[in-house]
Amino acid sequence: MVRQFVFAMNVWANDPNFHELGNERDPFVGTQDGTHDMTIPKRPIRKKITGLPAFTTVRGGAYFFLPGINELRYLVALGERTHARGA
Asked: Which residue of 16, 17, 39, 54 lies most exposed, with the fewest beta carbons within 10 A?
């Protein structure tokens, strides 16, 4: 699954050579700095939007897979029950 995410982000969203996109990046998840374009493929007339700003900001650079808050509460409660029994 991680490789699929990396592929989608690196190739589909950010690679200007993917499917001959040129200066285009995905407008929502692609890396934007105001210098990339987006083409809306509407027939018969295509519309090109230039100078897109960043809509999202990526912070960090690692994958963290953590349990949800309910699972963390369950583990805490399980530990408290085990500790109360004297284990």
From this structure: 17
